[in-house]
Write a structure and sequence with these properties.
- The protein has helices at 9-16, 20-27, 40-50, 70-76, 88-97, 134-144, 164-182, 196-205; strands at residues 59-62, 81-85, 102-105, 117-121, 145-156, 208-214, 228-235.
- The protein has eight helices and seven strands.
- A seven-stranded mixed β-sheet has the order 3-2-1-4-5-7-6, with helices on both faces.
- The radius of gyration is 18 Å and the shape is globular.
- The longest helix has 19 residues, at 164-182.
- Helix content is 35%, strand content 19%.
């Protein structure tokens, strides 16, 4: 799973016993050499779906990590591109890799942007958010967008009940709940809390009109359904900024 440049088992154990913020500060220098970094294939598929919907002005990557989302925002946005994350370590890596972008250290549960962006994206961050935290985050993204602005993120299809992936995800979530019950600070990372129905409801409650688009380049499952969809949450063009 990891390249020789990736973290050791000891480093991963220390991260797992830290808070989310501290854990990612520690992991940041080696994060891009782990499978936790969003693969280029998903980034490129996102770009392919969004390109016909642009061009866009300013772009925002929510929970930007080391800046992988700039692979999407850079080609699409004619204006400034900004990444926001709470990990100082991750932002340092992002700034080194993408010096032309803006980087903001902030808690995404309390975003202060207002009507500044035309496109917002997020990659691989939703599992770090408890369901109760999504409404204020989505409300903050809605507020950060200009009227007509778009919030987009990829979402994988749920694995079949009989698949090894399903049981691996179930086991991981169970282990994480046990860990957080007996150890502080908590480390939030759950794979099974981000269903399309729940996300659609939370986005709609924040004021978005929600659709999805298949990410065709990532293939289809045996039943013919897409392996991934891009969630497209649009702010009302006629609403207040």
């Amino acid at each position: 799973m990891f390249s020789p440049q990736g973290p050791s088992l000891r480093e991963l154990a220390v991260q797992a016993l830290s808070s989310v913020e501290r854990g990612y500060d520690l992991l940041a220098p080696k994060f891009d050499h782990t499978p936790f970094r969003t693969p280029d294939g998903i980034l490129d598929a996102t770009l392919g779906v969004l390109r016909p919907l642009g061009p866009f002005g300013a772009g925002l990557d929510v929970c930007c990590g080391t800046g992988a989302g700039m692979r999407v925002l850079g080609p699409l946005c004619a204006g400034r591109i900004t990444g926001v994350d709470f990990s100082r370590g991750m932002l340092a890596q992002a700034a080194e890799a993408h010096p032309d972008a803006e980087w903001v250290q902030a808690d995404v549960r309390a975003l202060t942007f207002s009507g500044e962006f035309d496109l917002a994206v997020t990659f691989g961050a939703l599992g770090h958010l408890l369901p109760a935290e999504r409404p204020p985050i989505f409300a903050g993204v809605h507020r950060a967008l200009r009227p007509g602005g778009l919030f987009a993120f990829p979402l994988g299809a749920p694995p079949p009940l009989a698949s090894a992936q399903y049981w691996a995800m179930l086991g991981f979530d169970a282990a994480m709940r046990v860990r957080n019950a007996v150890w502080r600070p908590p480390f939030v990372m759950y794979y099974r809390t981000c269903t399309l129905g729940a996300l659609r409801d939370d986005l709609a409650a924040a004021g978005f009109a929600v659709t999805t688009a298949p990410m065709a380049s990532l293939g289809r499952r045996r039943d013919g359904t897409p392996r991934y969809r891009l969630v497209l949450a649009r702010k009302d063009a006629d609403g207040p900024g």
